[in-house]
């Protein structure tokens, strides 16, 4: 498994949008994204910080149900 890069919240949102997620709403500095799949609806919350912590980014990918390789390919 490749290492996660140090990116901003805005860069993470752009990569997730390339993977089919759409912004549903924003409250303060947190953006909620959702993606409709044939099985269910997948959602995740991304904070708009200058640099996301690696653990936070890993949690976002876990919520979004995507792999690290998929995410890095769409950066």
Automatic annotation (TrEMBL):
Pfam families: HicA_toxin. The keyword Nuclease applies. Belongs to the HicA mRNA interferase family. SUPFAM superfamilies: YcfA/nrd intein domain. This is Periplasmic or secreted lipoprotein. The lineage of its organism: Bacteria, Bacillati, Cyanobacteriota, Cyanophyceae, Chroococcidiopsidales. It comes from the Bacteria. Coiled coil: none annotated. One of its GO terms (molecular function) is endonuclease activity. The keyword Transferase does not apply. It comes from Aliterella atlantica CENA595. Keywords: Endonuclease, Hydrolase, Nuclease, RNA-binding, Stress response, Toxin-antitoxin system.
């Amino acid at each position: 498994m490749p290492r996660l890069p140090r990116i901003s919240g805005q860069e993470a949102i752009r990569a997730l949008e390339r993977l089919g997620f759409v912004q549903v709403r924003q409250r303060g500095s947190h953006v909620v994204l959702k993606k409709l799949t044939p099985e269910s609806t997948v959602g995740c919350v991304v904070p708009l910080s200058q640099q996301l912590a690696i653990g936070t980014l890993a949690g976002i990918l876990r919520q979004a149900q995507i792999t690290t390789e998929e995410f890095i390919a769409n950066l």
